[in-house]
Q: What sequence folds into this?
């Protein structure tokens, strides 16, 4: 994508099944937001402004997963209008926490939650955007890190590769100077199999990593669950820790299923 | 006996425990930020300290493969073994901006990054760590290709070494000829002398800078008995190594067996997390990345630690050279213990044991080497 002096690149931000947290990360940029808005035209971003201009768009940021038949059609329309499409957050990149429905009968949930489930029209699964349309880059996180988001947008504006590492959280953890909570305190931690990006926040506060950023590029799942087991995590707890925001990400999904099912 | 003449390189004096705080204040008066051992996150870490009370007085540690626990013991100031992280982050920063390019009417100008160079005094540097610093010097302070920030930090740093009074269960410096007694490269070296009737420090002067600090300390002349006591501390520690690594023929053992089944065995346990490389005091690998601001006016070249355990680190045209974990572990261990000799004429391992203790999976470089050796024994 080329940045022309006279016309700024057009950015659109789309919401599918999600909590809006990742979109809020854009607004949370505060200091950088003015610079962003002067370099790119925020053409469609309902979370921030009612003013919307038509496509095509140079860059679309997509938050949320596909959970309804309408959204399945809408994402195709978004793709057709977008030169580049970047998915942001665990929902858009793996299906999100709502992908827990994939492993149960969604009608059971409807019966429990809604007084009149007949009005609800939903798919049986929650799936990532890349299952349905071509995606140019996936930015992980629950929510995404706002500085990583700015880096991705900047990279697309200039047509360069986003500098987003795909290695483990452990490397960030050591770079930050944290003491490993697993080694020094025996706390189970998903950092070794989780992709960096958060800055190793949880270990910095004596908590194990929850896996918000999904699997790192080569996650050693069975070696990981051996370590969790050695630190006292039960089979059921291992199944559950792998079944959160990125429950539907293949390495997490397969390893959690190796440790039983949600019904166990 | 009080003297004011203990100020020559190679001379030793005795500093009473009650005067230890004067070492800190003298360094601080000289403008040094004292970086020393303190307790954080359940471990001894090296961080800036203002006051003696921040030292891990009366603490020791118990280390094993994949586990570290602090424990109360005695009254020593330096009764712990190697800290969670070495001095590496203080000399070779985990990440930094190398330079900035700023757009102007004629194109762009490259600007150096202005940074205040810290004057650090490292308190409590162990023999293995001192050796690791000299190994990193050969890599990062090579005059042909110096890492300028490292060189500047190194020149500004004052080193107060400490002879180990206890070896940890994961220590094997004796095997690597890197400890437990410090031999060179320090400004001052301490040995903590504790028995029923005394708590003192033998202070050895290793450099002119060390001499000028020593001249301002209330040192008394060291007796032959003091020097013998200090030597006994080191030899007892040497006799108590937690681990050993048989280095005889190790280089060819590793270089000649790239397809050994043990590499697959370790790969099944290895998380490819990179903790071993980031905890290792000699690992120096790093990546450079370019980023730009959203207005396109400023570009930055950034450098950060990287690891042979990250897939992208071996990425070249056509893909990653080391897609599998077996090849990454083999790269790491073979580099440390074998290829380092070809590259730098020495071993890349000092036997500090950090890669063993701080591996969440408890993988032990000495055990992996022994497994390969044992499997090839003809008996
Ligand atoms: S605390 Fe977690 S993320 Fe940090 S080094 Fe240990 S295992 Fe890795
Ligand atoms: S390889 Fe392990 S034991 Fe050797 S210097 Fe590095 S961290 Fe220490
Ligand atoms: S490896 Fe040797 S020098 Fe290093 S901490 Fe252990 S005993 Fe001390
Ligand atoms: S050897 Fe241990 S610390 Fe190193 S990458 Fe493998 S699991 Fe991580």
A:
């Amino acid at each position: 994508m080329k940045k022309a002096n006279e016309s700024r690149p057009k950015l659109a931000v789309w919401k599918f099944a999600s909590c809006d947290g990742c979109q809020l990360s854009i607004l949370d940029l505060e200091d950088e937001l003015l610079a962003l808005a002067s370099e790119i035209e925020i053409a469609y971003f309902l979370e921030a402004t009612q003013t919307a201009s038509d496509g095509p768009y140079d860059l679309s940021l997509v938050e949320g997963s596909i959970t309804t038949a309408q959204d399945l059609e809408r994402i195709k329309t978004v793709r057709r209008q977008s030169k580049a499409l970047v998915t942001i957050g665990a929902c858009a990149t793996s299906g999100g926490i709502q992908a827990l429905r994939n492993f149960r009968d969604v009608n059971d949930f409807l019966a429990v939650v809604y007084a009149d489930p007949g009005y609800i029209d939903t798919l049986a699964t929650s799936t990532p955007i890349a299952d349905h349309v071509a995606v140019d880059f996936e930015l992980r996180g629950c929510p995404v890190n706002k500085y990583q988001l700015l880096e991705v947008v900047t990279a697309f504006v200039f047509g360069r590769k986003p500098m987003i590492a795909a290695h483990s959280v452990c490397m960030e953890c050591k770079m930050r100077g944290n003491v490993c909570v697993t080694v020094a305190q025996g706390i189970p931690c998903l950092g070794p199999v989780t992709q960096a990006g958060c800055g190793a926040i949880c270990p910095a506060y004596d908590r194990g990593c929850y896996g918000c950023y999904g699997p790192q590029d080569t996650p050693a799942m069975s070696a990981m669950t051996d370590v969790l087991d050695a630190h006292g995590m039960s089979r059921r707890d291992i199944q559950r820790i792998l079944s959160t925001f990125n429950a539907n990400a293949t390495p997490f999904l397969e390893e959690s299923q190796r440790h039983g099912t949600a019904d166990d | 006996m009080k003297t004011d003449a203990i100020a020559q390189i190679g001379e030793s004096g005795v500093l009473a425990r009650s005067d230890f705080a004067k070492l800190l204040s003298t360094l601080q008066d000289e403008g040094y930020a004292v970086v020393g051992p303190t307790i954080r996150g359940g471990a001894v870490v090296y961080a800036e300290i203002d006051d003696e009370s921040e030292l891990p007085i009366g603490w020791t540690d118990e280390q094993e493969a994949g586990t570290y626990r602090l424990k109360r013991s005695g009254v020593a100031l330096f009764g712990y073994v190697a800290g969670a992280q070495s001095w590496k982050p203080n000399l070779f920063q985990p990440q930094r901006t190398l330079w900035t390019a700023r757009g102007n009417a004629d194109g762009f100008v490259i600007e150096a990054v202005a940074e205040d160079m810290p004057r650090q005094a490292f308190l409590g540097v162990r023999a293995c760590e001192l050796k690791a610093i000299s190994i990193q010097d050969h890599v990062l302070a090579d005059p042909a290709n110096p890492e300028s920030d490292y060189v500047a930090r190194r020149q500004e740093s004052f080193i107060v070494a400490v002879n180990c009074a206890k070896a940890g269960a994961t220590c094997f410096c004796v095997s690597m000829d890197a400890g437990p007694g410090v031999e060179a490269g320090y400004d001052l070296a301490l040995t903590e002398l504790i028995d029923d009737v005394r708590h003192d420090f033998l202070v050895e002067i290793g450099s002119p800078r060390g001499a000028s600090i020593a001249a301002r300390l209330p040192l008394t002349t060291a007796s032959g008995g003091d020097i013998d006591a200090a030597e006994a501390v080191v030899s007892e520690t040497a006799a108590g190594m937690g681990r050993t690594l048989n280095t005889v023929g190790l280089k060819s053992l590793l270089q000649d067996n790239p397809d050994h089944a043990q590499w697959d065995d370790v790969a099944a346990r290895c998380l490819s997390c990179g903790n071993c490389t980031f905890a290792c005091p000699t690992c120096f690998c790093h990546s450079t990345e370019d980023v730009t601001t959203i207005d396109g006016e400023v570009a930055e070249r950034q450098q950060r630690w990287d690891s042979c355990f990250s897939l992208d680190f071996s990425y070249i045209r056509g893909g990653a050279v080391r897609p599998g974990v077996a090849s990454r572990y083999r790269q790491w261990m073979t580099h440390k213990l074998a290829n380092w000799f070809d590259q730098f004429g020495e071993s890349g391992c000092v036997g500090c044991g950090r890669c063993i203790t701080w591996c969440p999976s408890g993988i032990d470089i000495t055990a992996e080497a022994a497994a390969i050796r044992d499997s090839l024994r003809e008996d």
